[in-house]
Amino acid sequence: MDDTNPYANCLVLNTVSAARILLRRYDQQLKDYRVTVQQFALLSLIRMHPSEPVAGLAQRVALDRTSLTRNLDLLEKKGLIQRVAGAGNARRCVLTPAGELLQDDLSREWHKAQNHLLSRVTAEEADTYLRVAKVLSKE
User: Fold this and answer.
1) Which of 36, 68, 83, 123 shows the smallest number of beta carbons within 10 Å?
2) Coil, strand, or helix at residue 6?
3) 8 A C-beta contact, residue 93 and residue 83
């Protein structure tokens, strides 16, 4: 343990640092597509859960409603999603044809970035990291 910096082994600070670096790398990978990693995550969720109400999407990506709405507004403005009426007062999002095509391209880019990242760690390290991250991120 680093005695000169009492925070050097802080799980939260190291997680925040790693997240920022990883987000920058993935954002760079997706830059040519003019979407962020957060927007890619939303497009992916919308594709996987097309009938999910907006509130459910917020829970799945652990975003506050304001950030989610801002990102959905941007995706809608770009013509990638459309918000439609759901059951009751609920709104849900669907990918537009342009959103579907873009999501195909983004998925390929994500796979490249993911493979590059996984090449830097062992399969055991990746498995351990995911298990720990999932445990620590449960509320």
Assistant:
1) 123
2) coil
3) yes
| Cα 74-79-83 angle, rounded to 5 deg | 75
Residue 121 has what pLDDT?
Answer: 95
pLDDT, tens only, 3-25: 688 888 898 999 999 999 999 98
- Judge whether residue 48 has pLDDT over 90: yes
The conformation of residue 10, written as its DSSP 8-state character, comes to -
The distance of Cα 103 from the centroid of its chain, to the nearest Å, equals 13
Q: Nearest CA to 58 among 74, 42, 40? A: 42
Per-position DSSP letters for 50-93, written without gaps between them: TT-BHHHHHHHHT--HHHHHHHHHHHHHTTSEEEEE-STT-EEE
Nearest to 81, CA basis, from 91, 32, 90, 30: 91
CB atoms within 10 A of CB 29: 18
pTM: predicted TM-score of the whole model, two decimal places? 0.83
Q: How far apart are CA 93 and CA 51, in angstroms?
A: 7
Tell me how far apart the alpha carbons of residues 42 and 7 are, in angstroms, rounded to a whole number.
33
